[in-house]
Amino acid sequence: MSKQRVIVIGGGLAGLAATMKMAELGMSVLLISFQPVKRSHSVCAQGGINGAVNIKGEGDSPDIHFYDTVKGGDFLAHQPLCKDMCHHAPYIINLMDRLGVTFNRTAEGNLDFRRFGGTLYHRTAFAGATTGQQLLYALDEQVRHYEVQGLVEKMEWHEYLGAVLNNDGRCVGAVIHNLRSGEIRSEKGDAVILATGGPGMVYGRSTNSMVCTGTATTSAYLQGAKYGNGEFIQIHPSAIPGRDKLRLMSESARGEGGRVWVPRKAGDARTPKQIPEKERFYFLEERYPLFGNLVPRDVGAREIYDICVNDGLGVNGEMKVYLDLTHHTREFLDKRLGGILEIYEKFTGVDPREEPMEIFPAVHYSMGGIWTDYTRTEEGLIDHQSPQNQMTSITGLYAAGEADYQYHGGNRLGANSLLSCIYTGLMMSPGVVNYVNNVPEAAEDVPENVYTEASKNWQNKYSEIKKMSGNENPYALHRELAEQMISNVLIVRENSKLEATLDKIDEFEARWQNIKCVDTTDWSNPVPSFVNQLWNMIQLSKIIAKGALLRDEFRGSHYKPEFDLNQPGDFKPETYLEFEEQKTAGQLNESAFAPAHLDYMKRFSANNKKWLKTTIATYKAGTSGSAGGPEISYEEVDESLIAPRPRKYD
Amino acid sequence: MPDTVTFKIKRQDSESSKSYWETFVIPYIPNSNVISCLMDIQANPENSKGEQVTPVVWECNCLEEVCGSCTMVINGKVRQSCSALVDQLEKPITLEPMSKFPVVRDLAVDRSRMFAALKKVKAWVTADGYHDLGPGDRLPPNHQEVAYKLSECMTCGCCVEACPQYNLENNFVGAAAISQSRLFNMHPTAKNIADERLDTLMQEGGIADCGNAQNCVEACPKSIPLTESIAEMGRQVSGKLWRNIFKA
After folding, report:
1. CB–CB of A518 and B83 under 8 A?
2. Which one of B24, B59, B67 makes the best mutation probe of the A interface by having the most chain A beta carbons within 10 Å?
């Protein structure tokens, strides 16, 4: 065995899946995490993991899963990756079952599946309502086994600061900060994988965990890596309000029959149980008879916004609606949703088995992330041996899981994130190993000064941070940044507000210089790290806000009412396929279409031509004094397998 | 409604330094939990004497009682600080680090011993590989119900903090690890090395160290039936002892 190794940053599902798969292939792995990997944010995923196993005999198949995923993402996802992922999904679920995940069972003892948003099939395997936790534990156990065997070395309580780049700009290691001793040093690695999750903390309170600052991917961006689709931030329709965090109320609550409603009368002061059935407005069921409460998340969040803000029907006039499970028996609810109902009860003091829950939309997931590559086969699948798979635009630096950008397009379907995390980790591993086996120069042979200079650069930055003695508290400044983002870059986006937000972010950036490092001690001091993370969050908020400002359309989670194409209510998406077919054949018969439909289809087609593209943010360093920011450009999306068409869920 | 909330926090600057108490009086805000208050202290780290001090260091991540990170002793009881709601706590609120682990700083402790125990009891499934080997075994729903409950253990440390037998000096594996050995000994393939787990539990620091105080099951935030697990593993260990005797 050579001394070569791969550094994996982050111990959530993607990082652990890559670690165990590479270890299986004989590759040594150094696994770096803020905290014990068992505490990673993947534990927060609740409802389940998608895979067309077709246990219920509904005729489900990986191709239908693929179609639902691409349609759910409003056609912005890269189709070969989605197809390969969906085709591997049943195998991944079987693998996780073999590895000990305590999935719920049918009477016969098969894996049980439930429904989730954006599909009409029972496709979601689940372990109670803590599926992410259960999947993470199974991978954590595999990695622990490899740790005992010596193939994996874990460095928990360490933070990734940046990539070590050699003179050719190739990634040959990582600069690591020991969160206890404060030591900053470089670790050699022939490849580095960022499996560092999403950036929810940019919005302050979200459903994300505290470590989800996006700081690692932003650091890669600041080092020259491209960032893709930053403006596509998923707002989950159902969360529980909280001062410190907005706790998720899983989509599985609706998958198991939970009904969303508001009182028909604005400001109705009665308790929910006092309101008779006919005075309840089940607005999702009425507006979307086919998908009902299981419309995709972007649609659900927008409808809740609409009913509360535009119609003024929110519970007690606030941005809240009821999510009602009280028609089920306690036994049913405890077996299938126990974990999340306990959380609701613990944090609100109300028993959701007896009283409808009060929920509201919250920042949940980033479809965008660091740009990564792939190699497709002729059949439109992925060549798993290719070293390009999941590689960022910095050679040797990879990304996986929520940190990457290309699987979920403009909107992710529920229960596809656990799948994409495990899939990317497993799929990329053979290619990364091939890359490492063929590097022009092993990290061992890279001149030592490359590493010492990288360490020194970060040591200097941190000692500068520790000297900061202005009058801004970094945590208070973070709250202000978050407030801006929540107010202006959320469900409904307007250009004037986005412009103002970008100005505000520049102000925050200037105020960052005036921070007081409120703890300057050496031992186990989280403050300098937070100050650095805040800088990165400011940079990332620019990517999100600028991408949103420039994208003048309505796609998936990115909703600008001004650019809504207003699909006619009686329009059928198949009509558009016919229209496109006729156009391609050069035989467009305009009179065959209703005028309103024709007009809509022409606008839809023109809009796609302009905007069905990946947003790419590239960091441009500022000139004297200014910090610089993202330059935005657009890239083609591989949409060769399923023709883009208007989405419809009613 | 009170205007303020008082926190008495046991602080310690480093692993070897002496601990001290510091009081913080912060504005009362409805629907607070202990963590949102610690965040308020971060944003304005001023103690009750009006001195600017370093923000309190504590561990947390998910804030919804599923990662296990933010465990501490609150008003004398070990629990997660995210689910400790201020309105339900007696005031002033005292916060202390767990006492069964070395303190890192303030409320943060080093729980690596718990993860080491998971290695000792081989808490994993031995897989032939991660390629496609088809589905796992069919299992009845009641098997899943037992296993799922055990598998919710988040290695938070409540059970061992509450345990009179577990301390900084000995090497007892503790209730969490014993319960995990039960989980894997009931798994259709992980039970292939059940005996190895029992061997570990027979050694010093194993199941014989349990004094049957039953505090663990009371303290577990996930209501895992830890005493049942200990009893079950006790039976399995006795069975193996008898088998060993007859083999000899």
Report:
1. no
2. B67
Residue with tokens 């990539």: A163
Q: What confidence tens digit (pLDDT) does each residue in A612-639 have?
A: 999 999 999 987 667 799 999 999 999 9
ipTM of the complex model: 0.98
Task: Name residues of chain A where pLDDT drops below 70.
Answer: 1-2, 624-625
SS3 sequence of B51-88: CECCCCCCCCCCCCCCCCCCEEEECCEEEECCCCEHHH
Max CA separation in chain A (angstroms): 76
* Residue A467 burial (CB count, 10 A): 9
Cβ–Cβ under 8 Å, residues A86 and A65: yes
| DSSP β-bridge partners for residue B68 | none
CB contact under 8 A, A244 and B104: no
Closest partner CB to B55 (pick from A36, A109, A519): A519
Helix (H, G, I), strand (E, B) or coil at B95: strand
Are B94 and B117 in the same domain?
no
Taking the C-alpha atoms of residue B176 and residue B116, their distance in angstroms, rounded to an integer, is 12
Question: Using one digit for the tens of pLDDT, what is the confidence trace for A586-596?
Answer: 999 999 999 99
Cα separation, A502 vs A541, in Å, equals: 8
B147 and B90 inside one domain:
no
Same domain, B92 and B130: no
Q: How far apart are CA B63 and CA B44, in angstroms?
A: 21
Write the residue in B85, B130, B155 that is nearest to A20 by C-beta. Answer: B130
- Same-domain status, B97 and B116: no
B63 contact residues in A (CB cutoff 8 A): 209-210, 242, 244-245, 247
Locate tokens 């014993």: which residue? B178
pTM of the model: 0.97
Q: Final residue of a domain: which of B61, B84, B109?
A: B109
φ/ψ bin of A127: left (φ > 0), alpha (ψ from -120 to 50), beta (otherwise): beta
Query: Tokens 């009750």 sit at which residue?
Result: B48
